[in-house]
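Teaching assistant's notes for section 4

Start the section by putting this record on the projector. Ask students to predict, before seeing the second block, whether Rhodanese domain protein will look compact or extended. Collect guesses on the board.
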Amino acid sequence: MTDEVTIIDALQMKDVCFVDLRSEGEYAEGCIPGAVNIPLFTNQERARIGTVYKTVGPEAAKRLGLELASPKLPEFFNQIGELVKDKKVLLYCWRGGMRSKYTTSILNTLGLPVSRIQGGYKAYRRFVHRYLERERIPHKVIVLHGLTGTGKTLLLHKLNRQFLPVLDLETIAQHRGSAFGKIGLPASPSQKDFEAQIVQRLMASEKQGVIITECESRRLGKLIVPPAVFNAMNGGYRVLLYASLPVRVKRIIEEYTDGSAENIQQLQYSTGLLKKSLGLKVVNDLSQKIAAKRFDEVISYLLTHYYDPLYNYPDGPSQDYDLSVNCDDLDRAAIELAQWVTTRPEYRVPVESGGESYADRGSFEECEDQEGVFI
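Reveal the predicted structure now:
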């Protein structure tokens, strides 16, 4: 394995482990999906080097960087030594500068077969940007529509287990896209990580030609669905999911009220946000029922008086859609939808990839300016 690879080659490799050498703060803002963070410098150390670089000069910054990094080499060797036993290890920093050059050189000298990504994380971000800057993604999108509780996300999970191409935006975003969207879910990713995970799934489905997703608005919480994805959704196949009210109520209760006190508190808070839409008296009544754990009454009311009129989807088969699927039984629905998807003319017709142009490294001058700097 060569000691330097382009981001295009890196993303096409199998059995690879990306190691992010940037500080924990840089890593939290965005990383290559699945990357392990083994920072060469902490946030504070990186800030010190940056200050020295600006106030004293690059040579002093290099010396400080070496001074801070040298004591960490034994632990670096041990950690990355474990990773190379099972994977090809690719290191990267911000621009492919001294952090990754230094670490790669030392580890190679010590006998560990690691490589660095040319252009670093910035090259990866450029790749993601190029992939998503088109008017629309090239995949034919199959969009699931339906009232709340029809099981759209659950159905996506079942289709994914059948190895069909799925883009589950709500799971990536850790947000269900409504006033109740964060109940029981962990923190949402950054916009950069949201886009990165979307591109990762789109790349994985390029040979299948289609991708299945759920109808979403332009925003999921604070995250923005990339226009190229949103535009393709608007021009995709439209599949209507429908289910009986009792089934929908049962699903939502299972999803939103798993018995934890925190989820109940979040349900109370989210219901309070609907005062303007439902009125104070109704919200207070719903809050009392939530406290009494009368969830079936609460959810049934919210569906019939708020969510169903808001989304205004049919509650049964409709000729306005390319396909209508009864989702009272999600296992049967998954079989029916999978059979329909695999008969689409676009299925398994490979689509053009994206992101390659100018993604590898950036201009010579841009990268050359950073080669000798530890920050």
